[in-house]
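Before the break, one more example. Copy the sequence into your notebook; we will annotate it together after we see the structure.
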Amino acid sequence: MPRNAPAQRALLLAKHWPEPASTAAGRRTLDILDLLAEAGYQVEIASPAQPTPFQARTGYGEHQVEVNDSGFDDWVRALDPALVIYDRFMMEEQFGWRVREQCPRAVTLLDTSDFHSLREARHQALKSGEPVNLFQPIAEREVAAMARCDLTVMISRVEVELLKQLFCLPDWQLHYLPFLVKEMPAPDKLPGFEERQHLVMIGGFKHAPNRDATAWFAEKIWPQLHALLPGVECHIYGAYSDHAMHRFSDPATGLRVHGRTEDALATLARYRLNLAPLRFGAGQKGKILEGWLSGTPTITTPIGAESMAAEDAWGYSLSDDPAQFAATTARLYQDKTAWLAARDAGIRALESEFDHRDHAAAFIQRIQSIAANLDAHRERNIWGRILRRSEHRAEEFMSRWIETKNKLADT
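Here is what the structure looks like once it is written out:
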């Protein structure tokens, strides 16, 4: 952006107000907004969700908008953003056609946080015992939203390859951007092996993989682990905890389910091991990143490890077998040498994959390149043009019908 030029606006249309202390998706959203602000964009956030006491105090512009409301059209046209980011495919479905009508020169970006369809397909496979089937209606909607946007930002290299191979999305419509770390942890400034005790799990309970992980751990892993480590407790923290999660607390054995923690890194740094027994999910896992940032070795499963580090880069063998998960946890809890190896492996993963300096400039350059060649970029996006011309019109007509019905109901 040239010096002294008026700041271009970047608008995030968010399903929920970002809560980085509650969810990994909230952290991811702020990573992107902060990159844009650093590049000189004037950042604005708009959401139809109700504000919460836990949303980030970003200093960016905040706007309440309504779905199925043509008042949004006048507002977004006056705002005149150069870049519009949808933080879920549902937001592109709801607002995408309005943005295209009112701000046709705005570059559009879809940030999935994780590949929602993959997470849902894995969840269904876990419940049914059948193989993972990605070719479901939810994938049709999500991939269609990707095709309609100028760029889709993915947090997982695994998912980038999946979209290219299974859904034939081209490289020039996809961009890999992981979690971003500006300051790497210094192990000598963090509590060491002897200064820590007990086990910890962390993750918001609005996220289905975290709820499943808590139940699976409490029912299948903890009885075996408690027998291997008598006297050792496990503390589970999560935003939006409820009775269904708190019922797994068992003070007699030292299993305790808490609510949210105000400072995840400070909390994690008190414990000797961080556990992430995930059986399904997608994307990168904020709970593992925070474990590494706090110098807390993390024991996880192959699903948890996906997109975070290679299978041979953890300092132990990954497993989703309850007995092996418990045995690995007990070994690292008791063996300082193994604990140090796992801690150092996590810090190496941070340094090699998540350094802010390795990703920030390329992301901004990608957006600016698309903006500078917008007509040519859209000209070759034949599937996006087809979808905008035909199928997506259904979203527009449904929205207009709902708006009209609501107006008639008020008369």
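The CA atoms of residues 24 and 354 lie 14 Å apart. The longest helix spans residues 208-228. Try to locate both features in your own notes.
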